[in-house]
């Protein structure tokens, strides 16, 4: 680029009137220049022009203010990208199919996966969703708890439920440890990675910003499904317990 500028300058160098001084521009004493636009005559008679002129440092303050307001400061402009706002899906309702999402669990030290549709296909299933494992009861004051689910799982199976599962937005190791601590005999302790199932069912809970670090979790709910379709849906807002769930199987 410098070579091109020099060639242009050389083309106009012959038109300069003799005796006129070589133009030079510099900053005012009150505004020190970082780099100055200048020109000088080369040995061959051409005009060499410096391309390192910085108008923000050499122009008067009023002109600098205009350039800054019109074009912004020197350098790349900041990105204007913003993440789209979170849009909550409509809550799943009775008669709808269980949305397909991937759940995971730990079995014999190996991480395994199962889809939510496979979990409920061709049979009756009771699926409890909770916001977090090990959280004290004051965080979720409803009666739809994992501990109560484990205690009533036998009754649910007598009523025809082939699958009784607890789903939470925790990793598989936390879910396995939690299950062992509450004696999860007969209950599948499933991890909902990235709250995928909660989001698909319209039951995502946003706890972002809390000091506890919960972030995006699941609401507290219990769904009774028959061959993949929702037969009954209970949430903690309904003030229900597992007596209601068992009647709906």
Please characterize this protein's 3D structure.
It catalyses: [glutaredoxin]-dithiol + a hydroperoxide = [glutaredoxin]-disulfide + an alcohol + H2O. One of its GO terms (cellular component) is cytoplasm. GO terms for molecular function: thioredoxin peroxidase activity. Belongs to the peroxiredoxin family. Prx5 subfamily. This protein has 249 residues and is of the alpha+beta class. It has two domains: 2-71, no CATH class; 102-248, Glutaredoxin. The protein contains eight helices and eleven strands. It has helices spanning 2-13, 55-58, 61-71, 116-120, 146-158, 172-182, 196-200, 242-248, and strands at 39-41, 47-49, 102-107, 110-115, 124-130, 163-168, 188-191, 204-207, 215-218, 221-226, 229-235. Strand 6, helix 6 and strand 7 (188-191) form a beta-alpha-beta unit. Mean pLDDT is 76; it is low at 12-20, 22-37 and 78-87.
The largest pleated sheet is described as: 5 strands, mixed
Shape: globular
> Mean of the pLDDT scores?
76
User: What Rg is obtained from the alpha carbons, in whole angstroms?
Assistant: 35 Å
Q: Class by helix and strand content?
A: alpha+beta
- Helix share bin: 25-40%
The spatial strand order of the largest sheet comes to: 7-6-5-10-11
